[in-house]
Amino acid sequence: MFMTTVYDDVAFGPRNYKLAEEEVEKRVQQALEMVGILHIKDRAPFKLSGGEKRAAAIASVLSMQPDILVMDEPSSALDPKSRRRLINLLNKFEHTKIITSHDLDMVYDLCARTIVIKNGEIAADGPTPEILMNAGLLDACGLEMPLAMQGCPVCDGKIRKLTG
């Protein structure tokens, strides 16, 4: 985020493709609406919250109309409400999503397939619930089972269903 307004940041990519300004405006409007931040289009990026900055960055990518979204630790440093908003937003996208994260609860909510990497090698690859229920594998890779899958003594240890 380096332009004077969120609108100009989101428009940066399409403008560099030398698209007509009408097409740029259409893409920016669509991307801002898609991530739910049209109301902040005229704000300075440095005055946004962490969640708003993350949403604006995603809108910037979406304005380029990619086939694949690649994200590195998208939920890091977000408060719980912003994190949930991000997860809900990402669940709406039909794009292929490649996400690197240690936030395995987010992975559980978003991903049908999970690949676990250990020391630069694939340690496991398969359906997310299967991978994330393998406590031995996760422990060997320095990870922990997501809280959502650990069960709760108050609610009889029921595991919630994968929503994505």
UniProtKB/TrEMBL annotation:
Q: Which residues form a coiled coil?
A: none
Keywords in alphabetical order: ATP-binding, Nucleotide-binding, Transport
Q: What InterPro entries does UniProt report for this protein, alphabetically?
A: ABC_transporter-like_ATP-bd, ABC_transpr_CbiO/EcfA_su, ECF_ABC_transporter_ATP-bd, P-loop_NTPase
- PANTHER family of this UniProt entry? ENERGY-COUPLING FACTOR TRANSPORTER ATP-BINDING PROTEIN ECFA1, HEAVY METAL TRANSPORTER
Where does the record place the ABC transporter domain? 16-75
Per the UniProt record, the source organism is anaerobic digester metagenome
* Protein name, UniProt field: Cobalt ABC transporter ATP-binding protein (ATPase)
Transmembrane spans: none
Q: Which GO terms describe its cellular component?
A: ATP-binding cassette (ABC) transporter complex
GO MF terms listed in the record are: ATP binding; ATP hydrolysis activity; ATPase-coupled transmembrane transporter activity
